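EI: anyone free to look at a 193-residue chain?
SC: sure, send it
EI:
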Amino acid sequence: MTLPYNNIVDQREVQRWGKGCGRFPTSCVVRHLLVAANLLKPLGTLTVWDMTFGEGRFWVLIPQVRVIGWDIRKLKWYRLPFQFFKQPCWAWRYEEPSPHPDLVAIDPPWSRWQRGGRDRAHYWINKMEGTPEHILNYCGKAASEHFGVPLLVHYKDRWVPDGFRIVTEVWYQAVVRNMKMPKPSWFAILEPE
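SC: here you go
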């Protein structure tokens, strides 16, 4: 199944792809982006630094990915990381693990509020650190530039920092329980120029 790049792909469409996509549609979207960017090889292992690991849902259906994850707190994992650092994502500058990444992934919390109105103040360490812009720039962009590797981004808007170009992208329309259709979110693989 191929994604309609530069168009919107609906969660219900992704769920019909099968092979676990019904339960983990974002993992299917990520897998297709990696294949389209020629990063995922059938026999190779891809080392990913996921700077906002969360539950590891992006990687559930991609067994050939070795994930090194960062997050401020440890959640219930759907995918066990190769290594996990219970630290803010910018801690990689002080504790650079091995192996070095082939890809950096970033999916910042888009607001201070979680579903159900719960506060995520643990991400907002002060007025700047922990904001989506800080996480995108000082975790994702900085690590990608430092290692000269591509950057996988999931964000509410298109975000292409200076010195990067889009390799592949798709807008993903999630379906929520109350069927109010939120604005589509953006998945992309960027490359340092």
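EI: The chain has a mean pLDDT of 85.
SC: 👍
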